Every structure is written in structure tokens, then in C-alpha cells.
Task: inverse folding
């Protein structure tokens, strides 16, 4: 036995080698049939302790079984799908491990991958993750992903040949002597953009004082933060001359220049040939062109008999992906989220490997296993050239508009989970996307950010209620749906050139039903509900802590509540405002805002309410809710202004 075969042979125990990993049994697996492996739990545990790769995978739980056991082993592959690729690469092979008599669970299903130079590479689709992201091989593979996307992805927008260069770009033709260039609005010149985390001040960024020096003499490469140095290298390696980086392409001590360039943010990232996402870099000085570390506890490797009789190896990876992309530094920042959404093509330098993301797939460069980042994609129509969007949307049906609403809700949820260094930038950091289209309540900061009825007015992660987004789905018959009348919605922006940026004020004028509510107190960690008296539903509606109300047998729950800011509930009288409701008492449904007096004849939002799930087991609760709903249905309409 040669040394290579002996090494591979040592990956499993004698029983596994002569059983499922005998050449004959293994090729049965390769032909799509299952192999039954009869053994005992005691042998499996002993062999796993000695390092047998297969036996370590067979121990799928800690339950006490009878010693004799039969395992069913099977090989299959993930089918190719149309649209966005679910798991990459397509047709990745899977090893299934099932205990006879039990159902196959996700925990004992494993992806298979192998090295590029391994004999098994001819048959195994997925390859080992690319770790050396600055090698010539990595640049070559990444360029192929980019080229394939442009040539073969019909859903991905092509580079806009009429796109203008941004106002300023960095000339990377000599990566060791970069210069700042005034573009003069040049057409048909491709450029690259950088999305990264500042992580603190950048002392050598462009200012009014050094602008001319950076243009005439150039930028001292030693004064450039490492992350930006790496981006210059990548731009040059890919054969592009120009790179856009905010720290050097915006005059950082000029408020006017910042405003002017922020207005262009949507076009800058949308029109870039591709965007470099320095996902792994904690600061501008950390860099991203260095070798990715391998996992400390790699999954077992197994022998693999090829169809041509050669013996190779495969590595296993649980179906759940251990790499958590949301823990990357760039994934914590709101600005980076907008930049990623607006970019049609992205090279993502992550902690584990290099990824290529586009509208059609989120793939690992080099063909390793990856899962999609669907929350980082806009709808395809939003990346079309402006002059083509109208004709496309003209053909939309109801389901297309619903998809747009759901996508926006998803974007808000992801965006508000991220941080901005300056709270006033909360709207500005998503202005480009808007232009395209916890248990702890979110406190409204003392600093004005937006009108109280806007998601941007509170801090923290926001979830848009699906019932408010799609009344058809929530209430059933569209003919029975009624809603408040929006009389006007006026917003004063800080800078008219940035229509979706910072706002000075906003007023929403409605014509709707208002129901008084009595507030009985509570704390931030409380769960609230709307309650009414069982004996007389015409009594005042109570906003109470659920734990307190549910201990009172005389009260019935008639509504679910989400509070924006507890302290604002004590500022004055409260009302329920109806936004949408069903006129049929047979299938009641309603939802809206909780408001309080703002002290100037206007109101402000302090929460959200809706009728609870109709699947109520207690008949008394259901009767009380229907009676309350019928009573408030007789309320008169009022005109109100919410700020």
C-alpha cells in the first residue's frame, strides 16, 4: 500500500474501511443507492474516540440506544434552481446519515467538498475555501466570477456604458503612487468603489488644505490607511484605473461638498463596475488582503473512491453553515449596508474566504460552499437604468407591488439592526436606497431624527408589521377593507438636493376614527395589551401590562400592542387611531397607531396596535373582542395631524 493510500486509509477505522468505504460499497453510494452499515454503538463510540471520521459523524445524538444499530448512508446533490441560487455551488453533493427507524434530520446531513488538486475534484463539485485572498489564483478566480456574471447572468444589470465618473476618483495606475483626479464628468470610464468601516478618524483624508497636493503631487501611500491601500491594489490587479473612496474623494472638512457628494451616493455605487466590500476589516487601518484563518475544529475528512478507481478524499461540513456573516465588522454598520444594496456586483473580503455577490447569486470565489445573502439584494428592477424602470413597473401586478413592500420591510429590519456613529445620519445613510425605493421597545432619542410616525424616529431594530403592509393577506375579502384617509403628508428636508436625507419636520394629516385609551403604567421590560371589562365593553379601553391584566378575571384582551417609548405614554391622554380595518364583524380585523397629545394641537405616535389572532380558544374572550369591536365601530371620524 503506497503512503498516500495509507494516509487516506487512516481517516476511518477498519470496520468502516471494509464496510461502507470498501470500493464496491462506495460506488453503490455514487450510483445513488443507499448503503446499510450494521455495527454497534460501542464500536462506533470507540472508533470515533480514536479519530475515525465516519464514526464521529454517526454519533448524531446522546440518547441511550440498544447496542446493535444500522445506519443508512446516502449521497445526493442539491438540484440547480432557477432564479437566485439557494446554495452554492450548484449540484453540491450531500452525505446523509440516518439511524434505521429515525427520520433524517438536518443535524446529520453534511455538505462534501475537496481540494482542487485532490483526485476527487473531478467528481466533487464544492472545493476547499480559498484562504489566500491576495494570491494570483484568487485574483484570477474572482475576475472569472465577475466576467461570468456580466456575460451569463440575465437578471444582473450590465455595466452602464453611459455612466459618469464621480466628481473625484483615485488614479490607481501606479498603486504605489496614487493620485487624486478631478473627473470632469468623463463618460465610458469604468471605476471601482470601496465599502468599508472607518472605525475612527482618518488623519490624512482629503481636506481643502491638501486637495491640490493630492491632485498635483499625489498621495503618499504610507499615509493611506491599510484598507484603502489594499483596495488600490485590488483595483490595479483587476486592470481598472480609478477607485472611489469616500475619505479621499469627498472633501471631509467641507459641509457643502459632503452634501453634494451624498446626493450622488446612489449613482456612485450603482454605476461602479464592482464594489470592493472590506467586510472583515474592523477599521480603515486593518486591511483585508491577508490569509484567512482555517477553522480551529475542522469537520472530519473521509476517503472517496472515484469512478476511475483512484482514491481521493472529501471533507464534510454540516448543512448549517458555521460562518456567521452578520458578525463581520462591515455588517454592523448602516452606511455599509446601503453601499452593498446599491452595488450590482460585489467582491466581499470576509473572514473565512472571498465571495462574489450579485443579483443572481452569492457565491464563494473558488467554488466553496456558500449560502445566499438575500437581505443584501434589491429587487432587480431597482438596479435598472432610471429611464427603463417606468416601462418595467407599468406591467406590474398586485403580487409585484407586494414583493416590493415586503422587500422594503426586510431592508428596514436589517438596516435598523446596524449602527451609525452619528444618530443624525440615520436617514441619510439609507437615502440612496430610499430613492430607489426586541423585547425592549425602541427609545425615541431626545435629538430630532424624523416625524414620530416614521420608522426613522426611534433607535434600534424595526420590524414593519405584515398586516399593515398587506391587508389582503390579513383580512381576506378586499371589498370589506376600509382605511383612514390621508389628507396630506408634508415633510421639510434639511437640504432640498437630498430629498430622502435629513428632515427638519413632518406632518401627517389623517381623517380617521379615534378611540380614547386609559394608560395604567408599566416598565420597558413589560409586555402590553389592550383590555376591556367583561361586563361592560363600553367602559374605557385599558392599555395594561399583560401579566397584571391576565390575573384579573374581569378583563378581556381585545388588542395586541407594541410601544415605541414608555416615557411618552405619561405625557398626556392616549388614543387609538384606526389605519386599516374590516367592516365585517364576522371576520374582524383592525390595526393602527397609538397617539398622544403633542401639546400644540397636534399629536405624536407612541406605539402600534392591532386586533389579536382570531384563533382564540376561549369563547368568552372571542365574544368580548367582537362586542368591543362592534362598539368602537360606531365611533365618529376626526381630522388629526401627527408630527
Result:
Amino acid at each position: 500500500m503506497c503512503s498516500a493510500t495509507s494516509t487516506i486509509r487512516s481517516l476511518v477505522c477498519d470496520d468502516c474501511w471494509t464496510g461502507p468505504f470498501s470500493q464496491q460499497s462506495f460506488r453503490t453510494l455514487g450510483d445513488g443507492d443507499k448503503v446499510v452499515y450494521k455495527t454497534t454503538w460501542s464500536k462506533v463510540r470507540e472508533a470515533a474516540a480514536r479519530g475515525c471520521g465516519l464514526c464521529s459523524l454517526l454519533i448524531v445524538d446522546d440518547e441511550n440506544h440498544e447496542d446493535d444499530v444500522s445506519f443508512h448512508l446516502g449521497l445526493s446533490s442539491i438540484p440547480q434552481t432557477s432564479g437566485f441560487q439557494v446554495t452554492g455551488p450548484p449540484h453540491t453533493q450531500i452525505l446523509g446519515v440516518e439511524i434505521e427507524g429515525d427520520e433524517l434530520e438536518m443535524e446529520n446531513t453534511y455538505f462534501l467538498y475537496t481540494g482542487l488538486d485532490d483526485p476527487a475534484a473531478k467528481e466533487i463539485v464544492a472545493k476547499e475555501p480559498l484562504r489566500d485572498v491576495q494570491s494570483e489564483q484568487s485574483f484570477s478566480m474572482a475576475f472569472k466570477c465577475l466576467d461570468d456574471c456580466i456575460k451569463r447572468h440575465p437578471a444582473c444589470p450590465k455595466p452602464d456604458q453611459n455612466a459618469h465618473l464621480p466628481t473625484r476618483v483615485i488614479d490607481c495606475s501606479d498603486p504605489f503612487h496614487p493620485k487624486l483626479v478631478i473627473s470632469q464628468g468623463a463618460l465610458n470610464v469604468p471605476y471601482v468603489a470601496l465599502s468599508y468601516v472607518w472605525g475612527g478618524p482618518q488623519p490624512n483624508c482629503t481636506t481643502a488644505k491638501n486637495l491640490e497636493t493630492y491632485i498635483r503631487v499625489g498621495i503618499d501611500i504610507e499615509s493611506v490607511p491599510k484598507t484603502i491601500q489594499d483596495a488600490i491594489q485590488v483595483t490595479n490587479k483587476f486592470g481598472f484605473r480609478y477607485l472611489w473612496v469616500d475619505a479621499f474623494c469627498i472633501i471631509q472638512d467641507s459641509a457643502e461638498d459632503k452634501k453634494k457628494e451624498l446626493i450622488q451616493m446612489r449613482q456612485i455605487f450603482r454605476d461602479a463596475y464592482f464594489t470592493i466590500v472590506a467586510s472583515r476589516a474592523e477599521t480603515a487601518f486593518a486591511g483585508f488582503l491577508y490569509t484567512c484563518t482555517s477553522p480551529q475544529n475542522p469537520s472530519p475528512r473521509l476517503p472517496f473512491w472515484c469512478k476511475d478507481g483512484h482514491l481521493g478524499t472529501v471533507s464534510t461540513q454540516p448543512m448549517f453553515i458555521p460562518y456567521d456573516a452578520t458578525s463581520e465588522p462591515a455588517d454592523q454598520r448602516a452606511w455599509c449596508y446601503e453601499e452593498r444594496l446599491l452595488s450590482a456586483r460585489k467582491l466581499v473580503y470576509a473572514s473565512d474566504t472571498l465571495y462574489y455577490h450579485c443579483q443572481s447569486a452569492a457565491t464563494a470565489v473558488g467554488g466553496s460552499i456558500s449560502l445566499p445573502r438575500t437581505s443584501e439584494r434589491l429587487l432587480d428592477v431597482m438596479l435598472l437604468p432610471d429611464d427603463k424602470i417606468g416601462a418595467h413597473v407599468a406591467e406590474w401586478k398586485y403580487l409585484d407591488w407586494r414583493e416590493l413592500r415586503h422587500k422594503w420591510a426586510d431592508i428596514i429590519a436589517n438596516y435598523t439592526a446596524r449602527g451609525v456613529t452619528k444618530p443624525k445620519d440615520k436617514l441619510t445613510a439609507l437615502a440612496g436606497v430610499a430613492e430607489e425605493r426586541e423585547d425592549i421597545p425602541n427609545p425615541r432619542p431626545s435629538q430630532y431624527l424624523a416625524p414620530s410616525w416614521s420608522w426613522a424616529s426611534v433607535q434600534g431594530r424595526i420590524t414593519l408589521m405584515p398586516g399593515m403592509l398587506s391587508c389582503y393577506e390579513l383580512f381576506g375579502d378586499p371589498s370589506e377593507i376600509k382605511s383612514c384617509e390621508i389628507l396630506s403628508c408634508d415633510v421639510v428636508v434639511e437640504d432640498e438636493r437630498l430629498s430622502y436625507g435629513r428632515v427638519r419636520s413632518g406632518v401627517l394629516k389623517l381623517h380617521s376614527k379615534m378611540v380614547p385609551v386609559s394608560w395604567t403604567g408599566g416598565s420597558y421590560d413589560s409586555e402590553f395589551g389592550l383590555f376591556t371589562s367583561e361586563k361592560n365593553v363600553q367602559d374605557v379601553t385599558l392599555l395594561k401590562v399583560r401579566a397584571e391584566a391576565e390575573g384579573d378575571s374581569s378583563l378581556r384582551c381585545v388588542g395586541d400592542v407594541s410601544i415605541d417609548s414608555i416615557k411618552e405614554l405619561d405625557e398626556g391622554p392616549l388614543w387609538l387611531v384606526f389605519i386599516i380595518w374590516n367592516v365585517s364583524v364576522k371576520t374582524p380585523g383592525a390595526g393602527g397607531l397609538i397617539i398622544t397629545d403633542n401639546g400644540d394641537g397636534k399629536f405624536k405616535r407612541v406605539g402600534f396596535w392591532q386586533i389579536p389572532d382570531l384563533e382564540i380558544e376561549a369563547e368568552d374572550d372571542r365574544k368580548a373582542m367582537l362586542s368591543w369591536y362592534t362598539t368602537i365601530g360606531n365611533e365618529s371620524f376626526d381630522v388629526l395631524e401627527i408630527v
